[in-house]
Amino acid sequence: MAGEQIQLGVVRRLPPTPQTPPDRRTECSVVRCGDTGGPGLPVFLSWDGLRRLCEHVCSDAEVELGGVLVGDQCQDEQGNPFVIMTGSLAAQDYTNSAGSFTFTHNTWSRFTRELESLSGNRRIIGWYHSHPGWGVFLSDRDQFICENFFAGALDIAVVVDPQSNQLGVFQRICCGKSDWLQPAAGCCVFVEGVASAEMTARGLPTPLRYFVGPVGANFAAPSRSGRQD
Ligand SMILES: [Zn+2]
């Protein structure tokens, strides 16, 4: 693992924002993907934000592409945490190949500037990257990035395989075995206003499908693929 080559800034820790989840807001339409009834952290992904993320990672399905997820980390009226992803910032300056993705210092500086230019409560809530043709998982190197730079309890990761068209969400689930991120059994996609027919029918923007992980993955030790990307 070439950890010394990974240069990221430190994500500022802010307390959760008091907010009503999208599935309890009358102005929002929500479609559930996978199993959202479990004990995991509720994750709400904006349909428009997902579509832009999908366009980015599918713009070159041969190499790894990535960036950071933007949104808010919240708690509801009862103090229950949840996460909202409203958009993403694509890494414009990065080193990648068919088997690796690395943020650079310049990329991180640009994220900071772009985030400051956005209105509203926006913060970096995690990161995303693609695994062209390798499936949805977090490699040892991916877990290294998560643990060192996105280590907040509510930080998430999204992995997309643009060749098999699968998208997975990873979150910290307390299982007493590991603090590594595990595949979330489900997530909610939301839009302000009325859901389109595509959103209602598919849940995720075409051609993506939700990757729920192997049965019991939420409470199993992380799988070791042997890959170091
Ligand atoms: Zn990876």
- The number of helical segments is 4
Biggest pleated-sheet summary: 11 strands, mixed
User: What percent of the residues sit in helical stretches (DSSP H or I)?
Assistant: 10-25%
Low-confidence stretches: 1-7, 215-229
Q: If you average the pLDDT, what whole number results?
A: 83
The end-to-end distance, rounded to whole angstroms, is 8 Å
Domain count: the total is 1
Q: Class, according to the CATH hierarchy?
A: Alpha Beta
Written account of the structure:
By secondary structure, the protein is an alpha/beta fold. The protein has one domain (3-7, 16-211): 3-Layer(aba) Sandwich (Cytidine Deaminase, domain 2), CATH 3.40.140.10. It is built from four helices and 13 strands. Strands 1, 2, 3, 4, 5, 8, 9, 10, 11, 12 and 13 form an eleven-stranded mixed sheet that branches. It has a two-stranded antiparallel ribbon with strand order 6-7. The longest helix has 13 residues, at 105-117. Bound molecules: zinc ion. Zinc ion is lined by residues 129, 131, 139, 142, 229.
